Every structure is written in structure tokens, then in C-alpha cells.
């Protein structure tokens, strides 16, 4: 195997790989240490913390009692659906009384002239006009004023699984599994399968349909020309042989979650960009420490063998042109996407936003790696509801903050501004551009709190709080009586209350809404309410959504037969009242898949969910009947049924006969 083909052949569970060992070299306090210290304080049993002591002692018998008393009635809960049974199999399951319809899948046509999908004869040209691979973020932009029945579906394509995409490239010899070296054609197909899709959709007679001749339909790939804007644009550290201006870059990669702005643009978040670069920096290159902090080069993809810009020995500045937030004007299919450098450079999970009471727009941002940070960006300008054009460059000016959580339950947002505190030339920051290019280093020096893989962060305009998904951290080694999880396998959810209900505030308070995992195992220390059934608990929170009623929905990444005895899915979580901390399973994915999205439309009549990499790692499940990799196309491709998400797929969930979701 070429050493640069794929360091990790199979992306089975993010518990075991993919999101890094952690590259934070500082002694900054970790969130685990702060939670432990806080939970040991004398107010341990006060308020929502009381649930911790109760849930830590929940027995299997108590869970069975909860199943009988609560699963059907949802007593005290804001959710009234009949819960799905947790488990593992090769299909998907949705709550009783709901339909889950496959709307679009990898390879589906998005233009009238798109070629028919042929998995045994793929080409880069065909893939560039078809729905991309591994759909993650899903957004909706209305095409009619406020409509929840006609609009643009915007979808990120995070990464590619070669062993699931290309027949005949996997060799199995006993326990040894290898993948064939990539050639340029395969690399170019992968590049075309990355990026995003914009496609018009319409609800007709209660069911969603693609509008393949929609005038705004578009594919964005790793080769789409983009513009760098904001404080770092044009800086010498962003210039390459192909772009001496430091303002033009080809493509966007590893787009995980994202967002839709209040003015209707599509946000793509560049996450694990480090894996696309190979080679060695020229000796003495000044970017060495910067790249080490980001894990560059990782060499997981072979792109640099055929495209010099992904080989740091040939283009040492190219990695500085990735790791940004990308804004796309979905209303103009000819527009140039813009990488907004004011929002910092790191492994962006997403960028959900809210209009603050003073008109400024606040974006919440997670850096998805073990021991990295939580951020927010506050625009300098204000949102103009009546003039869309006036908002189109709001993301070029504002203040980026990084979070410090304190053990007394308070928190501070620390500004990343050149010249303030340690962010000076003495520490290598000669301008705001340097602060943004090396956002992680700036956060290190400000002593931000090291988190357990910050993923989606969602502001809730109904209750005024903010929800932070922290997937896991299996590298945490310190433990004590109040925080017994030496390695945080199952993750947790933090709830932030900004000072005075002001989302732009620089101080606030925080609580742990949930520590995840099986509450029937006391040493796990999970804190679901006692009303949560054996189906309702989950691990590894990843993406989330807040619906029009202010209710929280959480999707997961990392549940598996081996890790939790269940697949990933979508859970409804109560955040207020006597049911606070209660969770119910609404949808579960096929074995090996990850649950992405989710999106609940404003009229509450549709949920869009993204099923990513179904079948990956399915060999962990005895009943799968076939491995997730294959040598002969006939062992997999006949499973491409129209009514099942056996390819990466976006599903539309609707209530039978009409009605509100949940």
C-alpha cells in the first residue's frame, strides 16, 4: 500500500480514530477537571445537578419500570411520540406513525443531464453532476417567503469511504485487510464527491420531491474556485505558486456541520482538513509549529500524489487555506463561495447562528478534536431584515471569542484580538491575520478550557440558552470520586446561559445537561432522568437541532454493537420542567451508519435526516451477513434498494396523515 493512500483504511468508529489523538500541548485545564471540581462542591445536589446523584444509581429494573410508565405516555415530556426500540440491524427505524422516505442518495442526479449512477463505472465528470458522498449537514432555504414546502436543500459532503465506494479495491487475507493504491481517476472522483450540493425541493401531496431542473441547483467540490475574505485574506502565509494574491483557493473539503444564516446563505464548515495533505515541509519552514498544532500533514488521502497543492513539500502554504468557514450564496448558482477568515481557522464542526437583541449576529463554533476549544463570533455590523444585500459581508468584521469554563459554574468569552493580552508580536502574532491563521495557538495562550471534542453548538432562541455537544474523549486520564469516567467514552452536553440573555455577552453560566451513556451501569455516571427508558439513553452526541418550539433533538456518532449495543440515531431531549434530562429515541440508522443533520422545518411538519456511511464497520455485527468491504461488486450493489438508505442518503420524515413532528 502506498504510504499516503490511507493511513486508516476503515472509518468504523470515531471513538477509535479519525478525530485525532489531540494536538493541544498546553497545561490548560480540561473540561473534565472543571466538571469534577464543580461536582465536588457543596452545591452538588442543587438544581439540575441533583439529577446526577439520582441517575447514577438507576438500576436496570428502574429502567424497565420507566419503559412501562413512560415510553407510551411521555409523562411530563414535550414529546409525545411512541419511542423506537434501540437495537442493531441492517435497516432504519422511525417512530410509529411516521414515514421515512429516501429523498436523495449518493450518485443521484441533480441536473436534467446528470448521467445515471453506475457504481462500477464512476468518473469524476459524472460525480461532479451527481449528489456527493457522505452527506452530513442538512439545511433548508425557502424559495417562497417563509415557505416550509418549497425551497433549496443544502447538504455538506464530508469525506469519502473508498472501501464502500469502489468495487474491487479491497483485499482480505485472513485478518489482514488492505486497500489498493489510488490512481488519479479514483482521487479525482473522491474530490468531486466532496463539497456540497444545493438542490431545489418541493412538497407535493405531503411528499417531498427533487426539482432536478431547478435554476439554482449546484454542486460544489474540492475544485470549485473560492475567495478568501476578511482579515487574513491576501496575507503572505496564504499565497501559493498558483495564487500569488492569497485570495483565491480551489475547493472546500471535509465539510462537517454548517448552518444557514438569517439572510439565507449556506454555511459550510471545514473540519478535518489535515488528512488531505502529505509530504514533508522544507527544512526550516516557519509553518512547522503551526502545522504540528493542526496535525498537518496526516497523509490519509493520496491526493498529493497527483495534485501538488496537497503536498506540503511543494506547496507549503496550502494547508493555511483550509480550516475556514465557507459562505455560499445559494440563491446565485454562479456566485463565488467565500472563505470567511474572521471566524478563525481550526477544525470547524459547524456554525449555527442567532440574531441578538441588538441586531448583531452571533455564531457558535466548535473545534472538533480532543482537548480543543469552544468559540463564538459576534458580527460588528447588524442584520438588516429588509435588505439582504446589506448583510452579505457581515462575516468579514467582528470579534472571535474562545471559552473558558470555571468550576464555580461561570464562564468567560475571551476575545482573540491582536495586541490584547498575549496575542502580540512577542508570541509570534504580528497582525490579526496571524491570530486567525493560528487560532488554536491564540486559544492556548489565552488559557481556554480544553474540551472533550466540541461538535455542534446550537443557540435556542426560545429559552435563551446554548447547547454544546461534546462527543467523547477517550484520552482523558484523570478521575476522582465525583467524575469516575477516566476516559469519557460517551460524551456529554453542556448548557450555557449567556449573561442577561444577551448572546453577545462575554460572561455567562454553565450546567451539564447530560452525561451520556448507559444509566443502568453506575460506574458510567450517566445523568439521564429516571423517566428515560432503556431505549432513551445514548452515547456520543454529535449534531443537534432546536425546533420552532425550542425543543432539543440530538443525533449521535459512535454508537455501535461493540460500543453501546445499539446503532446511532436521533433522540428527543427535554431541557425544561420536570422532564428535564429525559431522552426518547425517535429514529435509528442501519448498522455502521452515522446519524447526521438533523433539521426540523419551521412548520414542524418535516424532519430531514442524513444517514452517513451505512454498513461501515458492519462486520462488528454478527447478523450483518456480509462485510462492509467487498471484492466482487455483486456482494454489495444489489442492496441498493430505492426504499432503504444503503447509500449515504438524506431522508424526509413526515407524520402519516400530516401533523407535527414529535
Which strand order spans the largest sheet, edge to edge or round the barrel?
16-17-18-19-20-24-23-22-21
* E-strand count: 31
Helical content band: under 10%
What does the overall shape look like? globular
Strand-residue proportion: 25-35%
- Give average pLDDT, whole number: 88
Distance linking N and C termini? 48 Å
State the major sheet.
Answer: 9 strands, antiparallel
Computed Rg = 23 Å
The total count of helices amounts to 9
- Please identify the structural class as seen in this structure: mainly beta
Task: Extract low-pLDDT stretches.
Answer: 1-18, 41-73, 479-484, 628-641
Quick tags:
mainly beta; single chain; 662 residues; six-stranded mixed β-sheet; 9 helices; globular; 28% strand; nine-stranded antiparallel β-sheet; 10% helix; disordered N terminus
Summarize the structure in words.
It is a single chain. The protein has 662 residues and is mainly beta. The chain is built from nine helices and 31 strands. The strands form six sheets. Strands 16-17-18-19-20-24-23-22-21 form a nine-stranded antiparallel β-sheet. Strands 11-10-15-14-13-12 form a six-stranded mixed β-sheet, with no helix packed on it. Strands 1-28-27-26-25 form a five-stranded antiparallel β-sheet, with no helix packed on it. A hairpin with a 7-residue loop joins strand 17 and strand 18 (374-382). It is globular, with a radius of gyration of 23 Å.
Topology:
Elements: H1 31-39, H2 50-55, H3 60-70, E1 93-94, E2 98-105, H4 124-127, E3 135-142, E4 150-157, H5 162-165, E5 170-173, E6 176-179, H6 184-193, E7 195-204, E8 207-211, E9 218-220, E10 225-229, E11 248-250, E12 255-260, E13 266-270, H7 288-294, E14 325-328, E15 338-340, E16 352-355, E17 360-366, E18 374-382, E19 398-405, E20 410-415, H8 432-437, H9 439-445, E21 454-459, E22 465-470, E23 492-498, E24 507-515, E25 541-546, E26 552-556, E27 569-573, E28 583-588, E29 594-600, E30 606-612, E31 649-655
Amino acid at each position: 500500500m502506498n504510504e499516503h493512500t490511507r493511513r486508516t483504511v476503515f472509518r468504523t468508529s470515531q471513538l477509535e480514530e479519525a478525530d485525532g489523538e489531540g494536538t493541544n500541548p498546553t497545561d490548560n485545564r480540561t473540561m473534565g477537571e472543571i466538571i469534577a471540581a464543580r461536582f465536588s462542591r457543596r452545591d452538588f445536589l442543587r438544581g439540575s445537578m441533583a439529577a446526577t446523584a439520582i441517575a447514577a444509581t438507576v438500576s436496570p429494573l428502574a429502567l424497565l419500570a420507566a419503559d412501562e410508565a413512560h415510553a407510551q405516555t411521555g409523562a411530563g415530556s414535550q414529546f409525545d411520540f411512541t419511542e423506537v426500540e434501540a437495537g442493531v440491524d441492517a435497516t432504519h427505524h422511525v417512530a410509529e406513525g411516521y414515514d421515512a422516505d429516501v429523498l436523495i442518495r449518493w450518485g443521484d442526479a441533480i441536473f436534467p443531464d446528470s448521467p445515471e449512477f453506475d457504481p462500477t463505472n464512476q468518473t469524476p465528470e459524472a460525480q461532479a453532476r451527481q449528489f456527493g458522498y457522505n452527506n452530513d449537514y442538512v439545511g433548508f432555504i425557502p424559495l417562497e417567503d417563509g415557505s416550509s414546502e418549497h425551497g433549496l436543500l443544502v447538504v455538506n459532503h464530508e469525506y469519502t469511504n473508498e472501501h464502500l465506494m469502489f468495487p474491487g479495491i479491497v483485499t482480505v487475507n485472513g485478518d489482514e485487510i488492505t486497500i489498493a493504491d489510488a490512481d488519479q481517476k479514483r482521487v479525482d472522483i473522491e474530490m468531486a464527491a466532496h463539497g456540497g450540493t444545493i438542490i431545489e425541493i418541493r412538497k407535493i401531496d405531503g411528499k417531498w420531491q427533487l426539482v432536478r431542473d431547478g435554476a439554482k441547483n449546484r454542486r460544489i467540490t474540492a475544485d470549485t474556485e473560492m475567495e478568501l475574505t476578511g482579515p487574513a485574506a491576501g496575507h503572505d502565509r496564504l499565497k501559493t505558486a498558483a495564487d500569488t494574491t492569497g485570495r483565491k483557493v480551489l475547493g472546500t473539503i471535509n465539510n462537517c456541520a454548517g448552518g444557514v444564516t438569517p439572510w439565507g446563505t449556506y454555511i459550510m464548515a471545514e473540519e478535518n482538513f489535515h488528512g488531505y495533505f502529505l509530504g514533508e515541509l522544507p527544512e526550516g519552514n516557519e509553518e512547522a509549529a503551526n502545522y504540528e498544532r493542526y496535525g498537518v500533514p496526516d497523509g490519509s488521502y493520496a491526493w498529493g500524489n497527483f495534485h501538488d497543492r496537497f503536498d506540503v513539500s511543494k506547496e507549503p502554504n496550502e494547508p493555511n487555506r483550509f480550516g475556514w468557514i465557507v459562505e455560499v450564496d445559494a440563491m446565485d448558482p454562479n456566485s463565488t463561495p467565500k472563505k470567511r477568515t474572521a471566524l478563525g481557522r481550526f477544525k470547524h464542526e459547524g456554525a449555527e447562528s442567532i440574531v441578538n437583541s441588538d441586531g448583531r449576529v452571533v455564531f457558535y463554533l466548535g473545534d472538533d478534536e480532543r482537548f480543543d476549544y469552544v468559540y463564538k463570533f459576534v458580527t460588528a455590523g447588524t442584520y438588516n431584515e429588509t435588505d439582504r444585500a446589506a448583510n452579505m459581508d457581515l462575516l468579514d468584521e467582528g470579534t472571535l471569542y474562545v471559552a473558558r469554563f470555571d468550576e464555580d459554574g461561570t464562564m468567560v468569552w475571551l476575545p482573540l484580538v491582536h495586541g490584547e493580552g498575549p496575542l502580540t508580536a512577542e508570541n509570534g502574532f504580528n497582525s490579526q491575520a496571524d491570530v486567525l491563521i493560528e487560532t488554536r495557538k491564540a486559544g492556548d495562550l489565552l488559557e481556554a478550557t480544553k474540551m472533550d471534542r466540541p461538535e455542534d453548538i446550537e443557540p435556542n432562541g426560545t429559552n435563551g440558552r446554548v447547547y454544546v455537544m461534546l462527543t467523547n474523549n477517550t484520552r482523558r486520564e484523570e478521575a476522582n470520586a465525583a467524575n469516575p469516567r477516566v476516559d469519557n467514552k460517551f460524551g456529554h452536553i453542556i448548557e450555557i446561559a449567556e449573561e442577561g440573555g444577551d448572546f453577545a455577552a462575554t460572561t455567562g453560566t454553565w450546567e451539564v445537561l447530560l452525561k451520556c451513556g448507559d444509566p443502568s451501569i453506575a460506574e458510567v455516571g450517566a445523568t439521564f432522568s429516571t423517566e428515560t427508558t432503556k431505549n432513551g439513553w445514548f452515547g456520543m452526541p454529535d449534531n443537534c437541532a432546536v425546533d420552532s418550539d425550542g425543543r432539543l433533538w440530538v443525533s449521535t456518532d459512535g454508537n455501535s454493537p461493540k460500543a453501546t449495543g445499539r446503532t446511532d440515531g436521533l433522540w428527543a431531549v427535554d431541557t425544561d420542567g420536570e422532564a428535564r434530562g429525559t431522552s426518547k429515541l425517535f429514529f435509528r440508522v442501519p448498522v455502521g451508519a452515522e446519524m447526521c443533520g438533523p433539521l426540523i422545518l419551521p412548520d414542524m411538519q418535516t424532519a430531514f435526516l442524513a444517514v452517513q456511511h451505512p454498513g461501515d464497520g458492519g462486520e462488528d455485527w454478527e447478523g450483518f451477513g456480509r462485510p462492509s468491504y467487498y471484492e466482487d461488486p455483486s456482494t454489495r450493489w444489489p442492496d441498493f434498494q430505492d426504499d432503504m438508505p444503503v447509500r449515504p442518503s438524506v431522508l424526509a420524515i413526515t407524520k402519516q396523515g400530516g401533523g407535527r413532528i414529535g
